[in-house]
Amino acid sequence: MDRTAWIVVALCVVGLVVWEMYLAKQMAPRPAPVTASPGQTSPTATPAILAPSPSPLATPEAAAQPSEPVPTFAERVETLRNSDVELHFTNRGGGIAEAVMLNHIAENAKRVTLNSPKHTPIGVMIDDPAKPALSEFTLVRESDSSIRCERATPDGITIRKKFSLLQSSQKKDNFLLELNVDVQNTGAQPYANADYFVALGSAAPIHPKDYPYYTRLVWCIPTRGWFGGSTLAAHDRNVSSFQGGAGFLGIGAHPAQPVFQENFAGAEWTAVTDQFFATIVAPLNAKATGIWGRSFEVSAEQNMVGVEGAMRMPGFQVQPGQTYTARFQIWAGPKIYHRLAQLEHNEAEIMNFGVFKIVSQFLLNFLNTIHGFVKDYGVAILVLTLVVRLVLWPLQSKANQTMRKTALLGPKMQELREKYKDDPTRMNQEVMKLYKQYGINPVGGCLPMAIQIPIFFGLYQMLAQAVELRNAKFLWVHDLSQPDTVAHLPVLGFPINVIPLLMAATQVWLMAMTPKTGDPTQRRIMMFTPLIFLFFCYNFAAALALYYTAQNLFSILQFYQNKRQPMPTLEKVAPAGKRKR
After folding, report:
1. Which of 122, 143, 197, 368 is a Cys-bridge partner for 96, taking CB atoms 3.0 to 4.6 Å apart?
2. Under a CB-based contact definition with an 8 Å cutoff, are residues 494 and 557 in contact?
């Protein structure tokens, strides 16, 4: 590289350091907009989202005292458990206080836990999620897989909620349960209830390095498809939008929004989720009509913010002697794509794979298939890379030959540039004629790279949420779902991530081997490619950088193999009319 190129590279490296420092500043501790516990009114919360109506879900006495700091009854807890999850039920509102993942480890060797007693239990029915009044329920264990929560009011309204763990045909990854609600009117007067909310619980980042956009409030509603018609699609609001931000140089600045609410015609399901785990609630005999959420501070020291939410449901009426029934399906566990795809309400949309969804789905399924044989996700990624390279090998070999042949045209193209330097349009026309004379397709050398783009971004989206990679070790990497940080630079605290640096180095090596084609400006632009990928991968999952590093090494091997072949010769091709004769 010339002096100018080295200056550009140095400036880009400085830019990377500045960007990381900017991200660290954005993630700096800030007061959480809402820190109130259930039963307390947040000083920053907006006025009541919906005017609560008298109902057995919140007694008039409880509704009149929404700021009561502690319940007036002793808390009681019952537990349901299978081989994957342990659910802690509380009599505070009759819901799930915690869902403990028995086979997933979080920070400090603790088990991953969804929701917490500090937040509204999952499945609780409330009138106003901003000021939840959690009445006392009795808890009755009906079997090893079901618990009944029951409460009766003086005016003859009885609420029965039955939570049942569901067992699939698979012996593992069972995180699904069903909630059946019966509201029975044994009184003498009709009972009418306005819209009510079902609590989703809370979600919080597991690792301090998790970016805010992974912790989200999500809802799935019908959306107009690209080619007309209607399709179900997930929409979300992440915690960074709850927090106020100054943006980057003023771009993207937004005020704090402590409480979020949105109404819609009908949703298949709503959820709170972090990067790898989610609580998804799907109503089975109605559609959700809105969603509510707010953020809360998890840890000021580790700069972590979570989100809690609730799903709004349409109201109902119950005549004397009749019963209103509502059924819900709850997934409280890891975002395992193949399990979520088996559910009936498009719950797999919570993966948020984006534009390259089909690519992400295929690569995740293929990666898991490979892992079934090799039993190591690091090795599985290398095998996946090898398969992709073998599929593209003929195309890449042809592209390498095209680049070598194009490089032989260098002197002729330089003559054209000198001759028509004052007329760029004419110069481009003559260059295209030159390509045509020698039968060279200028796009041929770029085609393999173009095919790699959807693969790269499909992997980017897939590896961001592939719970299978959590705590998967490979060589010095302790967790393939996290950056492979081995140290930090003194003073600045800048992380040293080895695999992304190896990826950039192998890409520079690959570019040095590539025949020099195109004009000098294009070659300088291509020099930015390693740095662009370094930006993408530096603080991302080590699995992505591992894939791309292996891909570069296989490409280098292919270049060496192609170089052993005879150098192509420049021969003019006959015009199309003459070839026909």
Report:
1. 122
2. no
Average pLDDT over every residue of 517-540: 66
CATH code for the part of the protein at 56-352: 2.70.98.90
State pLDDT tens for residues 337-365. 989 988 988 888 998 887 888 888 898 99
CA 155 to mean position of chain CA atoms? 47
Say which residues have a Cβ less than 8 Å from residue 251's Cβ, sequence separation at least 6.
none
R_g (Cα) of the chain, nearest Å: 30
Residue 35 is predicted with a pLDDT of 40
Short-list 250, 537, 169, 567, CA closest to 400: 567
CB 220 within 8 A of CB 349: yes
- Alpha carbon distance 137, 143 (integer Å): 18
Tell me if 454 sits within 8 A of 359, measured CB to CB. yes
Measured distance CA(551)–CA(553) in Å, rounded: 5
User: Whose CA is closest to 453, among 350, 536, 366?
Assistant: 536
Task: Return d(Cα 346, Cα 78) in angstroms, integer.
Answer: 31
Over the stretch 536-581, which tens digit does the pLDDT of each residue have?
A: 778 888 888 898 888 888 888 877 777 776 666 666 665 655 554 4
The pair of three-digit structure tokens given for residue 496, joined into one six-digit string: 């040293």
Residues 294, 45 contacting (CB under 8 angstroms): yes
Length of the chain: 581
Strand partners, 193: 316
| Residue 252 backbone class (left: φ over 0; alpha: ψ -120 to 50; beta: rest) | left
> How far apart (Å, rounded) are the C-alpha atoms in residues 307 and 273?
8
Q: Which residue has the higher pLDDT, 569 or 267?
A: 267
462, 452 contact by CB (below 8 A): no
Tell me the Ramachandran region of residue 346: left when phi exceeds 0, alpha when psi lies from -120 to 50, beta otherwise: left
Rounded mean pLDDT of 511-519? 62
**All residues at 6 or more sequence positions from 146 whose CB lies less than 8 Å from its CB, including other chains:** 80, 162, 163, 164, 165
- The model's pTM: 0.77
Query: Of the candidates 142, 93, 16, which has an alpha carbon nearest to the alpha carbon of residue 532?
Result: 16
Within 13 Å, how many C-alpha atoms sit on residue 238's CB side? 13
At residue 307, the 3 state secondary structure works out as: strand
Residue in the block written with tokens 């809802």: 219
Structure tokens given for 236? 């979300």
Distance CA 478, CA 472 (A): 7
Distance CA 89, CA 201 (A): 13
3-class state of residue 364 by DSSP? helix
**Domain ranges within the chain, ordered by starting residue:** 3-20+370-563, 56-352
